[in-house]
Design a protein that fits this description.
The protein is of the alpha+beta class and 179 residues long. The protein has four helices and ten strands.
Length: 179
């Protein structure tokens, strides 16, 4: 199965002081975000990114969710085709949002962070492992009113999922958030 999805904007994107050109583009590769809920209610869900569909559906059952994600040229490192979210960090699901507007957040993230474009209502996945990334993401989200979820992840396990917003943006304002 081949996915072809391209986006280019006129925004300049800088990441950790490095300029990546005048466009934001989806990388020429995609992966799969996999979330597996624990068998018992005391366990934490597992979250990971795998490079192929066979790995994504291995061990598939009713507790597994899979979604294609697309790397961003100059933002998502090519090694992130597979990612197990090591250490402690935050995982944000943000959207719906246009890639052009998302570029304003991407320039604020540290070199150790990553971002992917996804399909669905939360169309961006952003991982920040440093406290400065958490502050930058929250500071960017506050005035935009963007809908989001924040998961605290430790070694690929969701530790808590307390922070989310389904902003009151409805109607025209919701459509405007996409352009």
């Amino acid at each position: 199965m081949t996915h072809r999805l391209f986006y280019a904007s006129s925004a300049r994107v800088e990441h950790s002081g490095k300029r990546f050109g005048s466009t934001v583009r989806l990388a020429n590769w995609h992966s799969y975000l996999v979330i597996r809920d624990s068998v018992d209610t005391r366990g934490a869900s597992e979250v990971l990114i795998v490079s192929d569909l066979a790995a994504a559906v291995a061990g598939w059952d009713y507790r597994t969710r899979v979604s294609p994600v697309y790397g961003l040229t100059g933002i998502t490192s090519k090694s992130e085709k597979q990612h197990r979210f090591p250490g402690r960090g935050n995982l944000f699901f943000i959207g719906p949002l246009s890639p052009y507007k998302m570029s304003a957040l991407l320039v604020r993230l540290s070199h150790g962070s990553d971002a992917w474009m996804a399909v669905g209502a939360f169309n961006f996945v952003v991982q920040g492992s440093r406290e400065e990334d958490l502050r930058a993401i929250k500071a960017w989200l506050r005035p935009t009113g963007s809908r989001h979820e924040r998961w605290t992840v430790n070694d690929g396990r969701v530790q808590q999922n307390p922070d989310y917003t389904l902003s009151r943006t409805i109607g025209k304002a919701a459509i405007d958030s996409l352009v």
